[in-house]
Specification:
Blueprint (H helix, E strand, L loop, with lengths): L17 H7 L11 H9 L11 H4 L2 E7 L2 E6 L8 H15 L6 E4 L12 H9 L2 E2 L5 H7 L15 E5 L7 E6 L5 E5 L3
Parallel strand pairs: 2-3, 4-7
Antiparallel strand pairs: 1-2, 5-6, 6-7
Bound molecules: zinc ion.
Length: 192
């Protein structure tokens, strides 16, 4: 029996079983929940199928991580519509996340704003250059402004004496250039 005038204390919610909780949250090998940084690290392991030197993060196609309840949602923007690697990139991202312990990640294709080469990170640009692909120079908007008169630097010898051989290189996203100094052909990642 309660004494009159006294209100009963609300019953404290039972402590959540940490075992159950950790079972529901994506966890690393030690059973600790993955931090957002660790998820980005998993994504760093996913390489662009066309240019394995750069990751999808360096390429700038992974836009955002968010949670919908307990499901991880990854916003992915294809490099350009019609790029045949898009489906493969999304599959590789989902596979890497699941391998990292994330259950049933949702890959959301986000088409706006459209990807531009501006989204390639500085590290990604450097890796492209080391891979023998001239990274995009200047910003996409500047490219439109300046037209195609911009000089592309040879990734092999650094010479600015280069000429476009073909509008399309090894893939449609790249143009084929040739250096008139070292005479080597190279791919140029087009500004789009
Ligand atoms: Zn050269």
């Amino acid at each position: 029996m309660q004494k009159p005038g006294k209100t009963s204390k609300p019953v404290a919610a039972p402590l959540e079983n940490p075992m159950i909780a950790s079972d529901r949250v994506p966890a690393n090998a030690c059973g600790e929940p993955l931090t957002e940084d660790q998820i980005w690290q998993l994504l760093e392991e996913v390489k662009d199928p066309e240019v394995p030197a750069v990751s999808v993060v360096e390429l700038g196609v992974v836009r955002k991580l968010s949670w919908q309840g307990e499901q991880l949602v990854v916003d992915v923007t294809p490099t350009y519509s019609g790029c045949p690697a898009t489906d493969l990139i999304e599959e590789l991202i989902a596979a890497a996340l699941m391998q990292g312990g994330i259950r049933d990640p949702q890959i959301k294709r986000v088409l706006t704003p459209a990807w531009t080469t501006d989204w390639i990170t500085p590290v990604g640009r450097e890796k492209l250059r080391q891979f023998g692909i001239a990274p995009p120079q200047g910003s996409a908007s500047k490219m439109t402004l300046l037209g195609h008169d911009q000089q592309i630097t040879c990734p092999l010898c650094g010479s600015s004496h280069t000429e476009q051989v073909s509008e399309f290189g090894s893939t449609a996203c790249k143009a084929l250039y040739r250096c008139t100094d070292c005479l080597e052909p190279f791919d140029y990642f087009k500004c789009i």
